[in-house]
RNA sequence: GGGCCCUUAGCUCAGGGGUUCAGAGCGCUCGCCUCACACGCGAGAGGUCGUUGGUUCAAAUCCAACAGGGCCCACCA
C-alpha cells in the first residue's frame, strides 16, 4: 500500500524583513507559528516507507510515549519532547528517514474518572445511565478535548509525522489488542484465576502492584487476646496474644500462626483458639514466616485479606473467608458488623474487643499502607477472579536482550532497575472493572434467562463466536494496549502477512505491512523512569513475544522535572510550571534550549522558571549576531536576500581570525556530533553555546564588524568577509537547529536566496572538512586573545576608560620570539581594535617603557605606559603576590619532576608537559622579577 | 531489610585518573548605554570537589567505610 502523496509544496514564506538597528530583542511569537505551518504544510516531517524499502535511506524511528487523552502538556512532556525532537531533527539532517510516531493513550481509569466527574457536575450518574450511554459521553469527550495535548506539542516544535498518529482505542489498535489477548490465551500465557488482588474500593476495580504506592501512615498496633479452647471448644486459661494493625479483618481469621521453633508455643501448635470476634474456632499452625520477636510472636491468619496470610494459608490449606464487599463495606460473614464501612467497622470492633476484655494493648504504630496511585484510596487485598498474564516466560527473553546488549539503556544504570524488576516478576492482572477500555475478548454462553451459563466453557475470540453469547464485562488494563505501541501503531498484525484488519482501515493510511517492515523496530525510546516497569519493560516483552524482535535498540531515560525544592510538580501543590506559559514568555526555542542544557545524564531537574531566561538570552544573542553581517546582505522588496555570499578564497588565504573561527567551528561540529551520538544532550548544548557566544560573537564578530565610514554610515562588509561570516554562521545554525528549530530556520532564510525546499530542517548535518583546520592559527589567535586580555586587565585595574586609546608595547618572548613577533605584527589590527590601542609596538624582547604597568602572559609581556597613574606600592605588592603564586606552582612541578617514579612510570607526553610547564614558569618568574626590580 | 543516586563557588548544577578538570549559568563587586545585542560588553572576587582510609608515579575523578540528603523495591502482622 502506497503512502499518501505529499501535499503540494507551498512557497517558502518570505523571511521577515530585517529589523532596523534600533529594534528591540528577538520576538519569537510570529516566527514560531510561521515556520511550524511551513514545515507541516510542506511535508517536512514526513517519513516515507519507499525511501527505506528501496534502500535509499536508513530509518530512524522514535515512538512517542503517547500522552494520556486527559493530559495537558506539562514540563515532563516538554523535556522528553525536546530530547526526542532533537534526535529526530538531528537524524533527519544526517540523512536518515526519520519518523517520530505520535499518538494518544486512552488512559482507562484516568479518563473514566474525568468524564464521570464531569457528568456528576451535570447531575448525571454513570451507573444510572448505563454502560453504552456512558461510553458515548466518553467518546464525545475524547473528540472534544482529546487532541488538545497534541496541538500543544506543536507549539514546542515537535516534528512528528502526524499522519501516523494513533489512538490506543482506534479501530485498528483495538483489534490488535484483542488479537494479542487471544494469542496469549492460545500460548497459555493468559489465564483466569481467583486470587488475592489489590482492590481499589473507590474505583471498584483491581489494579496491579505497580499501580499501588506504599506510604507510611500513623496508625495503631492493637494486641488482642485469642483464648485457647479445649477439645470441646471451651475456653481454657491459656490464650495467645496477637498483634494486629487491621482488627476489622478479625472476623475473617481462619487460623493463628506461630513460628515452628518458638519454644513458648510448642504445646499450642495443633490446638485451637477462639477468634474473639464472631467466636470462630480456628487452628494454631506453625509457619516459618512468623517473626518471633514481633508483638507477642503470634500472627492471626487472614488469607482473604492479606497477602502474607494468603501464602501461609495456601501452605497449610487454611480456609479463606472474604468478609468485604467491593465497595469497602463488610458483608454478612462479618456478622454484627455487616454493612459497616471498613474504617467504621475497625473502630467498632476495637471498642467491642475492649469492652469484652480482649483488647490487651494499643500502641501508636507506623503502618505501611497501600494506596491506589489513581484514586489515593487505601487498597484492600481482596479475593477476586481476574485475568492474568503469566510473566515469567516473557521476562526471561526481555532480560536476555538487555543482558546481551541488544537493548541498551542510557544511562546504563537503569538496566539494573530493569533487571531487578524482571528477575522478581509477578503475574500481571490485566482485567479491570471499568467501562472505558478494550473489552476482554471472552465470550460466555447464556442460559434461557439470559444469565451467564457457568456450566459451559467460555470462548476466547475477537469476534462474537455465536449469537446469544455475551462478552466479558471487564476491560483490559491501559498498559495492555500501550505495550504494543511501537508495532501496533504501524499496523501490526497486518504486517505479519495475515489478512489484517488494519491495512484497509482508511483513517490510518500510514499503518501498513510496508510501514511495519520499514519502521519497526524503532531506534530509540525516550521516557522517564517513572514508567520503566509499566511500559518500557512490558513493551520489550511484547515486542519479543509478538514480533520476535526488540521494539527499540536504545532506551534513553530522562530525569524527572521537580520544583525548586525537589518536590514532584503536582496540581495539589500548585507548584507546576506550565510549559505553554514559558513558551509565551520566553519562546519555544528558549524553553527547548534551556531544557537541553539541564538534561544531564538522567538526573532529576530542579526547575526554576527563571532558568528559561538563559535560553531566551541565548536566542537573542544568536538573533543579534546575524544582524552584524546581515546588514551587508541585500534584500528585495519582500525582504528576501538577493546577495548570495560565497567564499572564493582558499582556506589558507583566509585571515587569521577566519582560519581560527572556521577551525573552531569544525572542532565544535565534531564535538557536538559526538555528544549527541552518545545522548550527552547537555554537553552538546553547552558546546555549541560556547562556540556561538564566546568564539563567534565575542571574538570573530568583534573583529569583522563593520565600522562607520567617513559619512557616519555603517559600511557594508566586503564580499569575501561576508561570505565567510555567512558560511560560518550557517554552520552554527545547522548545529543549533535541533535545539532551536524556529529561530535557526528564520535566520537561515535571511542568509542567502533559497528555493522552496531548501529549508534548514531538510539540510545536511555538517561534517567538518579536515583540510579546513589550522592549529597554528588557533595557537596564534589565542596569543592575541591573551594579549588583548592583558591590556583590558590593565585598563580595568587602573580605571582607564574603555574609550581612551592607549599606547602599548608587547615584548614577545618564548623560543621563537622573532617569528612570533612577525606573525603578531601581521595582525596588529586585531589588538589595536579589540584593546583600543592606537600606538602599538610589537617586538621580540622589547624594552619596557618608563612608568608602565606590566603584565606577563605566557612568555610575553605587555607594557602599558601610565605616567602618574601607577601606584608603585600597589604594583609591587601585586607583582610579589604573582611571583609567589608562580613559585609555588613551579615548586610543585619541580617536585613532580624530581620524583623518580613519576619520570619513569608516567607516559612520556605527561612528563614532557610537566617539563614545558617548568620552563614556562621559570621564564615567567624571571620576567616578573625583572618588572619588580624595575619598579625600584 | 535490599538496591540505586546525590554531596564540587552564595544558589542551581556540569565534569568522572594527569593545571587547558578546578568549570558553566545565575547571583555578587568594579567599570562601561563601545555604532548586533543592557536579554548586553569588559575586568574581578569566590571552592583544600561531604569525612576518613586505601589503590596509583598521579585521585574531585577508582575502591572501602562513615556522615548527611533523595529515590525505588520489600509480606514483620
Spell out the blueprint of helices and strands:
Elements: H1 28-41, H2 49-53, E1 59-63, H3 75-93, E2 97-101, E3 103-104, H4 108-121, H5 126-129, H6 131-145, H7 148-156, E4 166-167, H8 171-186, E5 190-200, E6 205-207, E7 212-229, E8 235-244, E9 255-258, E10 272-274, E11 281-286, E12 298-301, H9 307-316, H10 342-355, E13 359-372, E14 380-389, H11 392-403, E15 408-410, H12 414-423, E16 428-429, E17 431-432, E18 442-444, E19 459-460, E20 470-471, E21 475-476, H13 479-482, H14 485-488, H15 513-519, E22 522-528, H16 532-547, E23 552-558, E24 561-562, H17 579-586, H18 588-598, E25 605-606, H19 612-630, H20 656-677, H21 681-704, H22 719-736, H23 741-751, H24 775-798, E26 806-812, H25 817-826, H26 828-835, E27 837-844, E28 852-857, E29 860-865, H27 872-898, H28 900-905, H29 908-934
Parallel strand pairs: 1-2, 3-4, 9-11, 15-23, 22-23, 24-25, 26-27
Antiparallel strand pairs: 5-6, 5-14, 7-8, 7-10, 7-13, 9-12, 10-11, 14-16, 17-21, 18-19, 18-20, 26-29, 28-29
The chain binds one RNA strand of 77 nucleotides through strand 8, strand 12, helix 9, helix 12 and helix 18.
